[in-house]
Amino acid sequence: MFVKEIICLAIYWLCCLVCSIAPVHLSAWWVENLTVWGGIALLSVLYIKGIRLSVVSLLTVLIAACLHTIGGHYTFAHVPCGEWIGQCFGIERNCYDRLGHFVCGL
């Protein structure tokens, strides 16, 4: 059954829909999301061919895709929670892109 895949897709598309409302830079939003959509298309083709991801893998992909989409909305350098994380740890730079790269590495 593919219920977990549908739930992950629904969560991602909801995140994408919310982040599509007034992005900071529309062209950056498109570029950031086209890469995610390409990955979703690839995973869909693999699913059709019988290659299934585990629940942990699906959740990791979902988190990475949502972080990427949120980063595209604000541009990675200006995501509010990244600035907050930087202030908590005494780092001047916005750490959101580091978080995104770490999750993509998982």
Write structural notes for this entry.
This protein is an all-alpha fold. It contains 5 helices and no strands. The two termini are 25 Å apart. The model has no long low-confidence stretch (mean pLDDT 87).
Q: How is the secondary structure organized here?
A:
Elements lengths: L2 H17 L6 H23 L6 H20 L5 H9 L7 H10 L1
Helix pairs in contact: 1-3, 2-3, 3-5
Provide a concise account of the structure shown.
This protein is mostly helical and 106 residues long. 75% of the residues lie in helices and 0% in strands. It is globular and about 45 Å long.
Poorly predicted regions:
none
Rounded to the nearest angstrom, the radius of gyration is 15 Å
Q: Which bin fits the share of residues in helices?
A: over 70%
C-alpha end-to-end distance: 25 Å
Average pLDDT taken over every residue:
87
The string of secondary-structure elements, in order, is: HHHHH
Strand content: under 5%
Number of helices: 5
Largest sheet: none
